[in-house]
Amino acid sequence: MRVVVDCAHGAAYKSTPCVLRELGAQVIVVGNQPDGSNINRDCGSMHPESLCRLVRDHNAHLGLAHDGDADRVLLCDEKGILIDGDDIMAIIALEQLSEGVLAGKTLVTTVMSNAGLDVTIEAAGGKIIRTAVGDQNVLGAMLKLGLNFGGEQSGHIIFRDFSTTGDGLIAALQILRVMKSRDKPLSELARCWTRFPQLLTNIVVRKKKASGNSENGRISPGSGRSGTQNLAGAGSSCATPARNPKCGCCWRAAMPGC
Is the pLDDT of residue 246 over 80? Predict the structure, then answer.
């Protein structure tokens, strides 16, 4: 198997290529020259467009991109199409449901994940629990409820059977395991679910406080927490604090044709 790896000039610049080579992959590596200041600079999961191009150029079976500390991973299929955290969770959760190893038959994700996940997992006999944005909130729910799999659309994927935090390499290896066991390319595996219309954007705000409360599902003035609001059954919207001076907003449809 030929794999393109973008290490974002970060923590996994040696470990991920080494593990993949030990497992027999032919590895093309970029972003593996950290100098202390170039981490995430025009590379890695923050800038996955170059990964997709390299996968096509090298006729690779898979591409994977870490962020600087390698707790995240985004993938690219053999056609050069980006595979995000929602795709990864759909593939793995369905596989774990079929194997009977998804604890509580439940996937934990955040309010930012696509609504198509709910429909897909529920159709397979499972369910989804949503938390506020942040892998620490996903992990908190997993620990509280005794669950073993969860993550974020951004590529923070947590396998509690193997680790206590997000680990991009573990997530990539689990996808490779499914590709091998199913004998299917990543593009085919990613067709296991339908992504619903969704818009993510950042809005500049004048002021944010470090803490606060949401009322009736809406963000209160100065609130530091995320809030959600239903849109008359057609979907939902949510807002969550992002890096200053921004607030992250998500509009999510509840059906494919919205």
Answer: no
Round to whole Å and give the CA distance between 231 and 116: 16
Distance, CA of 152 to CA of 149 (rounded, Å): 11
Confidence of residue 222 (pLDDT cuts 50, 70, 90): very low
Supply φ then ψ for residue 249, to 5 degrees: -125, 145
Residue 215 bridge partners (DSSP): 218
- Residue that the structure tokens 């994977």 belong to: 64
In 3-state terms, what secondary structure has residue 47? coil
Q: pTM of the full predicted structure?
A: 0.83
Q: How far apart (Å, rounded) are the C-alpha atoms in residues 130 and 150?
A: 10
Q: How confident is the model at residue 197 (pLDDT cuts 50, 70, 90)?
A: confident
Query: Is residue 30 a contact partner of residue 5, using CB atoms and an 8 Å limit?
Result: yes
User: In whole angstroms, what is the distance from residue 8 CA to residue 66 CA?
Assistant: 6
